[in-house]
Amino acid sequence: MSLPAVLAPLRHKQYRWLFGSQLVSNLGDWLDYLALIILVTVVWHRGVEGMAALVIAMAVPSILLAPVAGVLADRLAPRTAMVACDLARCVTVAALVLAPNLYAVVGLVVVRDAFATLFTPAQQIAVRLTVPAESLLSASSLSQLVMQGSKIVGPALGGLLVAAFGNPHPVFLVDAGSFLLSALLLLPLRAARETRADEASAAAGDGHGADEADGPVEAASSGMLHEAREGLRHLTSRPVLATAVGGFSVLLFLAVLFDTLAPLVLRQLGFDARLIGVAMGVIGLGTVVGSVLLGQFAERVRPLALMGGGAALCGLLCGAVGAAVSSGATGAVWVWLLVLFGFGFALAAVIVPFPVILQTETPIEYLGRVVATATALQSLGAVTGPLAAAALAAWLGLGTTPILAGAGLLALGAFLAVNARRHDPQPAPQAEAAPEAVAPQRRAAEPAG
């Protein structure tokens, strides 16, 4: 019996190991996140400044280390990079049990996320080498299904563990174990040098350009700085790729504006503390459902057009929430839960096709650097978004900020749609052989996540 389209990548044995690794580590990440919040805000009573320190510690490594991580990802074997990063994160997370204060926790989080900065591009390279081009969107859908599902299941499971043990420290040990298990699941990934060679040859013969095919050879003799510049040059030279990376970064910033104020906005719409938690879960559920449907039915849709439609729908729903708050309207809670579900569903139409554009518009020799740069821009939006949300809410009011974010998302959707008509993404070059190996070439990539 044939698998549904969304599960098509699981036909490939090598990808199944990769998927299993992500499933375990993503769940552990959300256990860890909840445990950190409880430790800092409940056990140590550090409040807002403690949370701010955690957010900055999680974002800074990606922003500062992206050029180095991207180059390393393009140099190292994907399996080697991912296993090493998982083992390093296992040790770092386990050390959180011994952290005596906030400063120690922040330092360990910076180290942990520095390794995550390398793991993410390495994972994406591994996906490219284990999944054929026609299944990339399904693979992205499965990845988002795991990530969004972990956001729902992880905190709930973490809360149960904290309640059972009476403190968050055992949760860190569980998360450390998840990184160890993830590393073990990655060990069966094969490392075949010919896979990347085949990819590079296909790219050279399929119109990606001689200068792109020769770039990494030249860069290898010129140092990491030159390699980083080559990756950035490739990103800016491809209209679809540059539009998608810039558009996704802007969308994340605008979405964070809404997300930061969501608890306060929902209180104005009649949600109590219990229902606010339900509302956040409903957004995640919408993203899960959207990811599944996109993986099943959206193979023929142009990714950039899909991103534009998703951004526009997010903008309409975000603006509707802001307009209701500004006008003093409330309405039935179930109506707003449907709106939030729709927001999550529309968000899936942006976050699922985005990695597909990264993969199909980037020759494998540049993929680590492109993914690392995109991740750094996303981290920058995640850090600046809450600060901008607080400033705008204080200046313009609680309802006006979601309206502005919605207007920005609508404009972004229109911009992406126009560019989708002008630039039709071309399929990624693919080796003729079945992608059953993860090559070591110059480097690898990761999630998430």
TrEMBL record:
Subcellular location: Cell membrane
Keyword flag Cell membrane: yes
Pfam name, any one: MFS_1
Membrane topology of this protein: Multi-pass membrane protein
Domain Major facilitator superfamily (MFS) profile residue range list: 1-425
Record region (Disordered): 425-449
Signal sequence range: none
Biased composition (Low complexity): 429-449
Bilayer-spanning residue ranges: 27-44, 51-73, 93-111, 239-258, 278-297, 304-327, 333-358, 370-396, 402-420
Key words of the record: Cell membrane, Membrane, Transmembrane, Transmembrane helix
Coiled-coil positions: none
Keyword Cell cycle: no
InterPro entries per the UniProt record, alphabetical: MFS, MFS_dom, MFS_trans_sf
PANTHER family linked to this entry: INTEGRAL MEMBRANE EFFLUX PROTEIN-RELATED (PTHR23513), MAJOR FACILITATOR SUPERFAMILY ASSOCIATED DOMAIN-CONTAINING PROTEIN (PTHR23513:SF6)
Name used for this protein in its record: MFS transporter
Species this protein is from: Kitasatospora kazusensis
Lineage, uppermost ranks: Bacteria, Bacillati, Actinomycetota, Actinomycetes, Kitasatosporales
